[in-house]
Amino acid sequence: QVQLVESGGGWVQPGGILALSCATSGFEFSERAMGWYRQLPGRQFELVASITAGGQYTDYGVFVKGRFTITRDNVHNTLWLQMNELEPDDTAVYFCNRDTSYGGVPFSWGQGTQVTVSS
Questions:
Q1: Are 78 and 23 in contact (CB under 8 A)?
Q2: 41 near 93, Cβ under 8 Å?
Q3: Are 117 and 86 in contact (CB under 8 A)?
Q4: Residues 54-62: contacts with CB within 8 Å, 24+ apart?
Q5: Residue 31, SS3?
Q6: With the C-alpha atoms ordered 49, 57, 32, 7, is the resulting torsion angle positive or negative?
Q7: What are the residues facing 58 on neighbouring strands?
Q8: Which of 51, 72, 79, 108 has the fewest CB atoms within 10 Å distance of its CB?
Q9: Measured distance CA(3)–CA(6) in Å, rounded
Q10: What is the DSSP annotation of 57-101?
Q11: Mean pLDDT across the stretch 80-94?
């Protein structure tokens, strides 16, 4: 059974920093491209960042503008998202899941972690 457990969210002021983590189990993590997604109220999931199975290549939404970094640890089956220079528009619930940019069906979604950026 696939489990995705996100953590690390919270409230920060504009310009602040957060580091999200995603603990995974139930599938071969090292063989899957992974991604961080976010969901605003009433909106669909939006891909924030993705990383290939081996971690060599990453891709980011245009709104990231160099502020975030996605990394992974294939030994401990964990995905991270370092978020710098946070803006109010980054306020959302953040989720991790397999990268479905090129097809496939996402795993069942975890509970996500709330990120709130406000002054």
A1: yes
A2: no
A3: yes
A4: 54/30, 59/101
A5: helix
A6: negative
A7: 51
A8: 108
A9: 10
A10: -EEE-GGGTT-EEEEEETTTTEEEEEE-S--GGG-EEEEEEE--T
A11: 97
Cβ atoms within 10 Å of 113's Cβ, excluding its own: 22
- Site of tokens 């991270």: 80
User: If you search the block for the tokens 């009433």, which residue do you land on?
Assistant: 42
pLDDT tens, residue by residue, 6-44? 999 999 999 999 999 999 999 999 999 999 999 988 888
Give me the long-range contacts of 100-105 (CB less than 8 A, separation at least 24): 100/35, 101/33, 101/35, 101/47, 101/50, 101/59
How far apart CA 17 and CA 19 sit, in angstroms, is 7
DSSP for residue 106: P
Alpha-carbon distance 73 to 80, whole Å? 8
Would you state the structure tokens that stand for residue 28, as one six-digit string?
Answer: 């071969």
